[in-house]
Specification:
- By secondary structure, the chain is of the alpha/beta class.
- It is about 40% helix and about 20% strand.
- The protein is built from 5 helices and 5 strands.
- A 5-stranded parallel β-sheet has the order 2-1-3-4-5, sandwiched between helices.
- The longest helix has 12 residues.
- The radius of gyration is 13 Å and the shape is globular.
């Protein structure tokens, strides 16, 4: 079964690398390079999981996650926050906005895949 994943990441190199590694799940991986586009894509299409960068220029990962959780159609989609270091990641805030988990950069591809498998079931 092919899963549909959305990666919202403003660093295109990281996003394309993630897409490359996630094909092994197997998964269809769509990319958005900013929070507004990612939120629009999440609203328009049904995804099995969203990987969401925490620090983006337009909307933060916290803002996008909170917006998704406020909509009934998106309330149950697993959302993993991607962050570049513990100083940016606030676990309490992540829980309050409804994040399902987190992934710290840099990460190994097997770590990413294992974390996604946990949340995809």
């Amino acid at each position: 079964m092919t899963r549909k994943l959305l990666v919202i990441e403003d660093d295109r190199d990281i996003a394309h690398l993630m897409r490359l590694h996630l094909r092994d799940l197997p998964a269809q991986v769509d990319l958005a390079d900013n929070g507004a586009d990612g939120l629009a894509m999440a609203r328009a299409l049904r995804y099995d999981l969203v990987v969401l960068d925490l620090s983006m220029e337009d909307l933060s990962g916290y803002e996008v996650c909170a917006a998704m959780r406020s909509e009934a159609a998106l309330a149950q989609v697993p959302i993993l926050l991607l962050h570049g270091g513990s100083s940016l990641y606030d676990e309490n805030r992540a829980l309050k906005v409804g994040a399902s988990g987190e992934i710290a950069k840099p990460f190994f591809s097997n770590e990413l895949i294992n974390k996604l498998k946990q949340h995809l079931g």
